[in-house]
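I'm stuck. Protein, please.
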Amino acid sequence: VQLVESGGGLVQAGGSLTLSCAASGLTLNNYAAAWFRQSPGKDREWVSAINWSGKGTHYANSVKGRFTISRDNTKNTVSLQMNNLEPEDTAVYYCAAGTVVISEEHMYEYWGLGTQVTVSS
């Protein structure tokens, strides 16, 4: 089982990025999925989650209105569209899959290795 994130990079404040998470060895549409992030010196924090159908989405207050999570179950992928990025969004972003749509990271069974997002001011 493998989750692989892509789409990270360096962007100026106010810019946009779209992260993707591709699953192999796992039928992602059977699972809830989430994005977490971790900045240097900080604990990993939950960013957004989506249920198996894609009809239920949830966001941390810090990203609500700027980030959009979605999934394409035909392609076994989950995406995170990030708009109006701020320097505070700089972090390694991780994709996770689990059986429950929740913000608690210990409830997610499968994790990717992360992709770096850097937002310059």
